[in-house]
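Subject: for your reference before the review

Hello V.,

The reviewers asked for a structural picture of the protein, and I figured it would be easier to keep everything in one thread rather than splitting it across files. Below is the amino acid sequence we used in the manuscript, unchanged from the supplementary table.
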Amino acid sequence: MAHEEHQPRATAEQLALDTISMARAGGMPDPYWLTDPRIARACSVLGITAAEARDLPPDAYLTGPPPAVTPTVALEVWTDGACSGNPGPGGWGWITNESKPRTGSGGDPATTNQRMEIAAALNALRSVQERPIVVVSDSTYVVNCITKRWYAGWYRNGWRNSKKESVANRDLWEELVPLATASGVTFRWVKGHAGHALNEAADALAVAARDAARA
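And here is what came back from the structure prediction:
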């Protein structure tokens, strides 16, 4: 009785790569790469996107999917401002989320809380050069200005707000906005005094700087 020779079964990855290879050889139009269910299933098996599959070199199916690229984890810098009297003596502080945190702080004998919140973010971005970076602040004033692009209206209206009044703290905003809107910089709001260790640490730096400015 003759024995049939069994070929090893193709793996799911090999079948997925064959699907992509045949689609490429057949000249599948670009729009279909993003909608074809066969491509979607193949990409799911390989752990790549349809756009990545479309852009593979012609012989990529012979060597398997491209190696996974570990995304760069953004550095975080937590910032805070403090002021007594508002206006009155104030301080700002920032701290990174590194194993050996970097910190910075400063004070002003006559200022406002908003100025100190802006100054904290400004000085953090001046001092910490790594990108990508996330500025974490408990100031909705600072975060909304950047994430909601309030500054665009200020530019357009000659540094006047919706009430036709001069924008407060223009001198600080003019320095902060270009840094805050540069590539690799994002802002995130966090509730203050809600148990976030780095928020508390930034606050402590700001308070200490405020007290030193008062002395």
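For the response letter, the relevant points are probably these. Residues 1-9, 62-70 have pLDDT under 50 and may be disordered. The chain has two domains: 12-63, 75-214.

Happy to draft the paragraph if you're swamped.

O.
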